């Protein structure tokens, strides 16, 4: 099959969950003999081929509201002039462009992501747009892809439509590169970790506040930044100011180091609340990190019985203190999380499901 993957920043994956999914799924589909074309936003490194996928680099308007849709519009224009059997569109925000793909008689599935309209970065107009985009995705997609059971339930209950539930996968780490960690100044098992974009619904400010209130001895390492949320970033910095235990290290783009940090942390603190199956959470589970997560249905669905949950600064402070008091119990939780990831969230299985979905789309199996 000739498969196009549209709507993300592209590959190599250096930003978020969509990009990781495109790389992991697309490379496996390409290795299975399919022709995979990935549309990428213009970058300094313009590879023509990456992991057997064909890359198409096109421009985008650098603006938080217009960036995704502008790039997808140019990508769809390119797509319509190429022979394509199936289009996989990521992000419901791209829904207004689906009729053009349908007009070209290309079957299309839309990965709707989480409940984007709930994100605080969107004002009233942005929220209304994303709600409208949800409705248009339902109307104009041949298939809807949900990455969590709770998202599938939401689309069935709100719009009365079925969807295909395909989660993300989790890379499994059996060991930690302790030499790399120590070389960067981190003691294996000697720090708590946060990895997140600085957005209100990821609750980085709440995690930093809760940790600051705690009597924890091990430092808190916060990995992340905010391209469009300067005030929120300043709020986090103000909360951390004066507490020598809190280290705001910005982005970590060395994937080997980031993997070692996941595998070598005492706990991984996860604050995401409006997405579905979160890739950073799965990466932490696959690395055997004991997870303390914000208490929402998505995180409980993924973690099962391996998680500890918080809802405010006080409960997070208590959870961190308890983790330091009972390190053996935390290691057991980490092992349980890794085993859950190993059996429930594998990229090979995820890619196989996407392959079956594409085969159904090409055959025009009714939804």
From TrEMBL:
Pfam families referenced in this protein's UniProt entry, alphabetically: Glyco_trans_1_4, Glyco_trans_4_4
The keyword Lipid biosynthesis appears for this protein: no
Gene3D superfamilies the UniProt entry points to: Glycogen Phosphorylase B
Glycosyltransferase keyword on record: yes
Glycosyltransferase subfamily 4-like N-terminal domain sequence ranges: 16-169
GO molecular function annotations of the record: glycosyltransferase activity
Sorted UniProt keywords: Glycosyltransferase, Transferase
PANTHER family reported in the protein's UniProt record: BLL3647 PROTEIN (PTHR12526:SF636), GLYCOSYLTRANSFERASE (PTHR12526)
Name by which UniProt lists this protein: Glycosyl transferase
Species this chain originates from: Planobispora rosea
């Amino acid at each position: 099959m000739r498969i196009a993957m549209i709507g993300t920043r592209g590959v190599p994956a250096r930003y978020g969950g969509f990009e990781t999914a495109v790389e992991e799924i697309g490379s496996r589909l390409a290795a299975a003999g399919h022709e995979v074309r990935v549309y990428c936003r213009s970058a300094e490194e313009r590879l023509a081929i990456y992991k057997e996928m064909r890359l198409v680099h096109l421009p985008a308007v650098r603006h938080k509201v217009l960036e995704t849709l502008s790039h997808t519009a140019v990508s769809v224009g390119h797509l319509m002039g190429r022979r394509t059997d199936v289009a996989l569109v990521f992000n419901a925000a791209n829904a207004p462009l689906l009729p053009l793909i349908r007009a070209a008689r290309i079957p299309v599935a839309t990965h709707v992501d989480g409940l984007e309209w709930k994100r605080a970065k969107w004002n009233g107009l942005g929220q209304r747009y994303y709600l409208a985009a949800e409705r248009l995705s339902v109307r104009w997609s041949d298939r809807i892809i949900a990455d969590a059971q709770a998202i599938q339930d939401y689309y069935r209950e709100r719009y009365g439509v079925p969807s295909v539930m395909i989660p993300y996968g989790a890379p499994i780490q059996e060991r930690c590169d302790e030499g790399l960690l120590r070389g960067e100044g981190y003691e294996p098992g000697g720090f708590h970790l946060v990895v997140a974009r600085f957005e209100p619904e990821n609750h980085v400010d709440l995690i930093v506040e809760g940790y600051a209130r705690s009597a924890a001895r091990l430092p808190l390492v916060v990995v992340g930044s905010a391209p469009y949320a300067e005030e929120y970033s300043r709020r986090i910095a103000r909360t951390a100011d004066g507490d020598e235990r809190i280290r705001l290290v910005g982005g970590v783009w060395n994937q080997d180091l980031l993997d070692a940090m996941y595998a070598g942390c005492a706990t991984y603190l996860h604050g995401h609340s409006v997405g579905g199956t979160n890739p950073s959470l799965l990466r932490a589970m696959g690395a055997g990190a004991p997870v303390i997560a914000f208490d929402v249905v998505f995180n409980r669905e993924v973690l099962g019985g391996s998680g500890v949950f918080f809802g405010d600064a006080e409960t997070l402070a208590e959870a961190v203190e308890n983790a330091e008091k009972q390190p053996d119990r935390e290691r057991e939780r980490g092992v349980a999380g890794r085993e859950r990831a190993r059996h429930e969230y594998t990229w090979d299985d995820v890619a196989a499901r996407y392959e079956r979905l594409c085969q159904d789309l090409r055959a025009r199996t009714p939804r």
